[in-house]
Amino acid sequence: MEIAIISGKGGTGKSTVCAAFVSVAQSTIAVDCDVDASNLYLIFSPSCDEEYVFVSGNHAVIDSDLCMNCGLCMSYCRFDAISSDNGLIRVSEVACDGCFLCSRICPVKAIKMIPATKSRMFAGTFRYGKMVYGRLAPGEENSGKLVNVLRNKATEYAKNFGYKTVILDGPPGIGCPVISTITGVDKVVIVTEPTISGLLDMERSYECSSKSSGQIYVIVNKYDLNMEITHVIENWCEEQGVPVVALLPYDEHVVDAMVEGMTLVEYNEESNITKLLRNAYNFIMQN
Ligand code: SF4
Ligand code: SF4
After folding, report:
1. Predicted pLDDT of residue 163
2. 214 located within any domain
3. Are both 61 and 170 inside the same structural domain?
4. Both 85 and 200 in a single domain?
5. pTM reported for the whole predicted model
6. Nearest residue (CA) to ligand 2, atom 2
7. 60 Cα: distance to centroid of ligand 2 (angstroms)
8. Are residues 173 and 209 in the same domain?
9. Predicted local confidence at residue 157, as pLDDT
10. 189 and 270 housed in the same domain
11. Does one domain contain both 110 and 19?
12. Per residue in 209-268, pLDDT tens?
């Protein structure tokens, strides 16, 4: 069973919900698919049993001994990745899109394309099972491809070690890495909050998920901060046939638990918010 936790934007409490679900599940594979800003490892401190280089693409490098400073590459680069610094032609690794154009047009073949190798995939063991996460280096691309690599590793772990549940913490938004996170999963949980942008983002997340995954659920975080919009969210979900599995109140313990490096369930097993999250997880597993 694969369950993906997503949200239309960052800061909705998605990772907090995900970490709590991992605690409730106990024996699981946790996958942090937010490869641009992974944070689950901060709570779970997994061992690093495996580390792989993820080649995210290519970037241009100029051999200054060969370069004759004609400026042709600079004028052709659509990404403004090439500049002249005191007469020395340079490429910005962050800005370079790896399109190969400059390497083809350079009259003296001074530009080489080399693989971008700063991104990583990590896999290890933590207190509830196995954890897989990745880190996309700044400026490197193909985050969706890295998410696919993470999911393949999780599938391999599930098969080899007999885990039945995989919980994926998705990236915010509806871009390529989100599509890679939710495609083919059994269940998607959209975490939202009672604001206009939260409502619109939830609708977009639903549109995106309904095309590529199984049953969809919604959790409204900090629902009590705006009851009016919470009711709008509930009504919208009812119209779409999407179960709202938890209304989580604003709770200062969320920050306290984070500071302690614990999930909400670990921080206080008996708290109201823990009970709500436990019930939500059990409902999702059974329906
Ligand atoms: S096109 Fe080649 S020779 Fe001309 S500035 Fe660029 S790297 Fe140098
Ligand atoms: S590979 Fe493309 S994006 Fe990168 S520096 Fe060359 S022309 Fe610009």
Report:
1. 96
2. yes
3. no
4. no
5. 0.89
6. 99
7. 6
8. yes
9. 96
10. yes
11. no
12. 998 888 999 999 999 999 999 999 999 999 999 999 999 999 888 889 988 999 999 999
List Cβ neighbours of 251 (8 Å cut-off, separation of 6 or more).
271, 272, 273
Q: Which ligand is nearest to the CA of 60?
A: 2
Cα(200)–Cα(215) distance, rounded to whole angstroms?
Answer: 20
Q: pLDDT-based confidence at 138, cuts 50/70/90?
A: confident
Residues 211 and 273 in one domain: yes
Closest ligand relative to 107 C-alpha: 1
Examine residue 281 and state whether it is found in any structural domain, yes or no: yes
- Is 66 near ligand 1, meaning CB less than 6 Å away? no
Model confidence pLDDT, tens digit, residues 54-86: 998 999 999 999 999 999 999 999 999 999 988
- Rounded-to-integer distance, Cα 222 and Cα 263, Å: 17
- Tell me if 26 CB under 6 Å of ligand 1: no
Of the candidates 193, 217, 184, 224, the residue with the CA atom closest to the CA atom of residue 287: 217
Enclosing domain of residue 182: 2-34+162-286
Pocket test for ligand 2, best of 79, 89, 103 (most atoms within 8 A of CB): 79
| Section 153-164 average pLDDT | 96
Residue of 65, 66, 73 best suited for mutating to test ligand 1, as the one with most atoms within 8 Å of CB: 73
Q: Mark which of 84, 99, 116 sits at the end of a domain.
A: 116
Question: How many whole angstroms from 69 Cα to the centroid of ligand 1?
Answer: 5
| Residue 70 CB–ligand 1 contact under 6 Å | yes
**For the domain that residue 183 is a member of, what is the CATH number?**
3.40.50.300
191 and 229 share one domain: yes
| Ligand located closest to 82 CA | 2
Neighbours of 88 (CB within 10 A): 11
